[in-house]
Specification:
Length: 346
C-alpha cells in the first residue's frame, strides 16, 4: 500500500505532460497518459479512502513533471504584472490551502500557445493585451463594445478564492479578481429569446504559435446557458493573486465557472454573444464522447479514460516537478449549494 501511495506518475506524463488529448495523438490514448493509475481507476471510493488516497489533507502522494522550454520559463516574475484595485469578497473562501502563485502560473492549459503546460508561460510572455476590445452582441437590446481599460474602470473588481478543477483530474485553489458576468449581462439587456451565451477567444497565429496548427478549430469557443452565466459564481476574471491577469492565465480577461471542468473557463475572450440555440464548444466538437456542453464537475461520472472520483491537488514547486496530494473530488466542485438548482428537472 505504501508503494502505491508514494508512486510517481508514469513516464508518459513526463514526455507528454498533457492529459487533454491532442488530435494528432488520439490513437495513443489507450496507453495511460494520466497520473491516475490503473489501481486508482479500478478502486471504488471506499477502497480509495482506505488506501489513503481519498482523504483531504493526506500527505504528498506524487509529483508531476512537465516540460519547460528552458530555465527562463521557471522565472515567475510578479513585478511584470500591474496591480489592480479590488476588494476582497470574504464570502468566497475555501478550506483547502491556496495554491502557490508560481505553481498556478507555470502549469497552464492554453492550447493557443502550446499543448505543453510548462511551455505556456514562456511562449505567451509577450502576448499583446492592449488595446483589447470585447464585443457583447447577439440577441440583446443594447449591444456594446468595451475596451478592457473601460471594463476595469466601470466594473468594481473583487477577489474571490475558488477551487479550480481541470477535467484531467488536477486541481488548485486560486484567488481570482474580477466581477460577476451578470453585471455585464444586465447592461446589454438580453432579449427574451436569448437562452445561451457564447464566448470566443482571440485569433492571432503570429502571437499564439499553436494557432498555426490546423488540427484545432481556432479560435477557441465555449458556451453557457443564460442561467449559468447569470449565476452568482460566474466571473469575468481580470486578475489573479492581487494583480492583472498574466498572459498564461488568459489575459486580459477570461471566464471563470468554478463548478465546471476547467476547459469551460475560456481565456482571453474577445466576444460574448447571446443566442437562442445551444452553442457548440471547442472540446465537444473535437471529441464529442469525452467533453460535453455541460461538463459539471461530478465525482460519480468517470471520464471515458479515467476516474473523476479524486484529483491531484497541486502542491509545492520543487525544481522541475510539482508535488500533489490526492483529494476527493466534490460534487459540482464543492459549489452544490449555489448551482444544484440549475440542474433540477421540473
Ligand atoms: N482559450 C483557451 N481557454 C482555455 C484553455 C485553452 O486552451 N484555450 N484551456 C482550458 C483548460 S483545459 C483549463 S484547465 C484552464 C486552465 O486555466 P489556467 O491555466 O489559468 O489554470 O483554462 C481553460 N481555458
Ligand atoms: Mo482543463
Amino acid at each position: 500500500m505504501f508503494g502505491l501511495v508514494m508512486r510517481t506518475p508514469p513516464f508518459e506524463l513526463q514526455t507528454r505532460p498533457n492529459d487533454m488529448p491532442s488530435i494528432q495523438r488520439k490513437e495513443g490514448w489507450e496507453i495511460s497518459e494520466n497520473a491516475v493509475t490503473p489501481e486508482e481507476v479500478f478502486m471504488n471510493r471506499r477502497q480509495l479512502i482506505k488506501a489513503g488516497l481519498g482523504i483531504a489533507g493526506a500527505g504528498v502522494v506524487g509529483s508531476l513533471a512537465w516540460n519547460h522550454l528552458n530555465a527562463e520559463n521557471f522565472v515567475y516574475d510578479v513585478s511584470r504584472y500591474k496591480k489592480i484595485n479590488f476588494i476582497k469578497n470574504e464570502d468566497f473562501k475555501v478550506k483547502r490551502a491556496m495554491t502557490e502563485e508560481a505553481v498556478a502560473g507555470n502549469y497552464n492549459n492554453f492550447y493557443e500557445f502550446s499543448e505543453q503546460k510548462g511551455q505556456v508561460i514562456g511562449l505567451s510572455r509577450n502576448m499583446k493585451t492592449r488595446p483589447w476590445k470585447i464585443e457583447v452582441s447577439g440577441l440583446v437590446n443594447k449591444p456594446l463594445t468595451l475596451d478592457i481599460d473601460d471594463i476595469l474602470k466601470q466594473f468594481p473588481q473583487e477577489e474571490r478564492i475558488y477551487r479550480f478543477r481541470c477535467v484531467e483530474a488536477w486541481s488548485m485553489v486560486v484567488p481570482w479578481i474580477g466581477f460577476k458576468l451578470s453585471d455585464l449581462i444586465k447592461k446589454v439587456e438580453p432579449k427574451a429569446e436569448a437562452k445561451y451565451v457564447r464566448f470566443l477567444t482571440f485569433k492571432d497565429p503570429d502571437m499564439a504559435p499553436n494557432q498555426k496548427s490546423d488540427r484545432y478549430p481556432w479560435p477557441y469557443y465555449e458556451g453557457l446557458t443564460i442561467e449559468e452565466a447569470n449565476n452568482e459564481l460566474t466571473l469575468l476574471a481580470t486578475g489573479i493573486y492581487g494583480h492583472e491577469m498574466p498572459p498564461q492565465h488568459g489575459a486580459p480577461i477570461r471566464v471563470i465557472v468554478p463548478w465546471k471542468y476547467g476547459f469551460k473557463s475560456i481565456k482571453s475572450i474577445v466576444k460574448i454573444e447571446f443566442t437562442d440555440k445551444q452553442p457548440k464548444t471547442f472540446w465537444s466538437d473535437l471529441i464529442p464522447n469525452e467533453y460535453d456542453f455541460w461538463s459539471n464537475v461530478n465525482p460519480t461520472v468517470p471520464h471515458p479514460r479515467w476516474s473523476q472520483a479524486s484529483e491531484r491537488l497541486l502542491g509545492k514547486l520543487t525544481g522541475g516537478t510539482i508535488d500533489y496530494t490526492r483529494v476527493p473530488t466534490l460534487m459540482y466542485n464543492g459549489y452544490e449549494a449555489q448551482v444544484a438548482h440549475l440542474y433540477k428537472k421540473t
